[in-house]
Amino acid sequence: GYDGWSCVGEVNVAGAIRSPSVEITEERFPFKIVRNDLRPGSGGDGTWRGGLGAVFEMVYEGDEPAKLNMAGDGVVNPPFGLFGGAPGLPHRYKVMSNGRERILKSKETEVPILPGDRIIALSAGGGGYGPPGSRDPDSRSRDRESGLD
User: Fold this and answer.
1) Residues 113, 63: contact at Cβ < 8 Å?
2) Is 112 among the domain residues?
3) Minimal CB count within 10 Å: which of 74, 91, 99, 106?
């Protein structure tokens, strides 16, 4: 077996959902991408670790206030593990505005944002597969050394 795929969309598309290009996003929309990275510790523990989610952070650079719509699931119920594997971390969305953090709900609409606000999406990790105690120690060490756990 293998650890889960990191930063992929729904299983039914076999990893065909990819993150859009940072450069194209910044060219087309009034956002500056400041972070697009793996989310350490988001994959559920198991014989095979769940794939890692992502940390995606952007700053709104528009000239006027705007409205944001959320479309994600997995905020309340995290991805489950199988055959003794631990669940992955759930999605978490937030807006940082004037030094205050606002946690967003799944599918929240018309969230007001201001120029300079930070929008942070922490995508869920996949659930682990098999009992964590059966994980290969070398794999666990590699995760730790790579900053993935």
Assistant:
1) no
2) yes
3) 99
- 113 domain residue, yes or no: yes
Please count the structural domains in the chain: 1
* Residue 149 in domain: no
Domain limits for position 119 = 32-143
Determine the distance from the C-alpha atom of residue 122 to the mean position of all C-alpha atoms in its chain, rounded to a whole number. Answer: 4
Which of 31-40, 64-73, 87-96 has the weakest average pLDDT?
Answer: 64-73
- Give a yes or no: residue 66 inside a domain: yes
